[in-house]
Design goal:
The chain is of the alpha+beta class. It has one domain: T-fold (Roll), CATH 3.10.520.10. The protein is built from seven helices and 17 strands. The protein has an eight-stranded antiparallel beta sheet. Strands 3-7-6 form a three-stranded antiparallel beta sheet, covered by helices on one side. It has a two-stranded antiparallel ribbon with strand order 4-5. Helix 6 runs antiparallel to helix 7. The longest helix has 24 residues.
Length: about 350
């Protein structure tokens, strides 16, 4: 008579978190604990910070922004990050624009968020920011504030080269890759952590030993490898630092990624006004939108983040755009009303 194996209890999940990239980094996987996993994530985060940080004077991105229109040789990682930023602009019709570095400085986001004066309480009032004009700029006046509109979007005029990897920005253009680069880092870190787990577990050619990984960088969450039987449990809310009891929804991820963008977090005071970090490409000021928070699921964290950020910027047009791209989403209106679409669980 054949023996029947007793069901195995679910493996304990190991969770480690620390501060990185101006947010909370978290890695989770089935035990036992493996120091190589966190080390692999930290290595990826150091690499993206050295390549794409707007706040480090010695980062590649800072040097590129200071190159004043000259072509600069860059690492493969920065080239990948810039290409992702251009892709984000292309598929969103410019709603997610990587060339708003100077605009972010204009609204006071000129240093790490931890060094800004935070704003709590009600959602911020927003104001169009004054953007400097370049040779291709056109002036428009809205409510007495001069804003800038380009004849040809600057992101379309960025020049990339593969051999050797190099980038040339239009003169006067400054990149900010904060959103897409962090999502890219989550994707890369999840892959690196999974490789580290496979190495200590005897290789991924042993399915019974393979363990999946979840990596979260604030609201950017990527997974790689098999999820626990019940899936990765994620509480979706305005602020990733909130407790599981905060208003929101707990969802289960089995594959892919999830990103949340919100104007209810990362708010600061500048010039006597409350600001947030998601800008309107048309005038460079914090976007006026009907959504306070949007969460999107996609195959990669980069795509999920592009979708969630675009939805905030697109406002009332977001639901149609998300449907066209087949992206499950949860949208929270300014008054707290929730809309789920595209297969997002109710």
């Amino acid at each position: 008579m054949a023996a029947v194996a007793a069901p195995q209890p679910p493996a304990q999940l190991i969770t480690e978190s620390w501060e990185a990239l101006g947010t909370t980094a978290l890695v989770r996987y089935a035990g036992p604990s493996e120091p190589a996993v966190r080390a692999a994530v930290e290595q990826e985060l150091r690499a993206i910070d050295a390549a794409a940080s707007r706040f480090s004077a010695d980062s590649e991105l800072s040097r590129l922004n200071a190159a004043a229109g000259r072509r600069m040789q860059v690492s493969r990682l920065l080239l990948e990050a810039v290409r992702l930023g251009i892709r984000a602009a292309s598929i969103t019709g410019g709603a997610v624009d990587p060339t708003l570095g100077q605009s972010l400085i204009s609204v006071g986001y000129d240093r790490d968020f931890s060094q800004l004066t935070p704003v709590d309480g009600a959602l911020p009032s927003v104001v169009s920011a004054l953007r400097s004009l370049d040779a291709d700029g056109l002036q428009a006046r809205h409510g007495g504030i001069v804003v800038r509109r380009r004849q040809v979007p600057a992101w379309r005029r960025i020049e990339l080269s593969e051999d050797p990897p190099s980038v040339r920005l239009p003169p006067g253009v400054s990149l900010d890759l904060g959103a897409t680069a962090k999502a890219l880092a989550a994707d890369r870190a999840a892959r690196a952590a999974h490789r580290a787990l496979a190495g200590v577990s005897g290789g991924s050619d042993s399915p019974e030993r393979e363990r999946g990984v979840l990596v979260a960088l604030g609201g950017d969450i990527a997974t790689y490898g098999p999820a626990p039987a019940e899936g990765w449990q994620v509480h979706v809310t305005d602020d990733h630092r909130s407790s599981p009891a905060a208003p929101g929804q707990t969802v289960s991820i089995h594959t892919g990624a999830l990103a949340t963008s919100s104007i209810a977090t990362r708010r600061w005071s500048h010039g006597g006004r409350a600001m947030h970090h998601i800008l309107d490409p048309d005038d460079g000021g914090p976007v006026r939108t009907c959504w306070r928070t949007v969460s999107v699921a996609a195959a990669t964290c980069a795509d999920a983040n592009i979708g969630s950020t675009a939805a905030i910027v697109l406002g009332a047009r977001a639901t149609e755009w998300l449907a066209e791209h087949g992206l499950p989403a949860r949208l929270v209106a300014l008054d707290g009303a929730v809309r789920a679409q595209g297969g997002w669980p109710e």
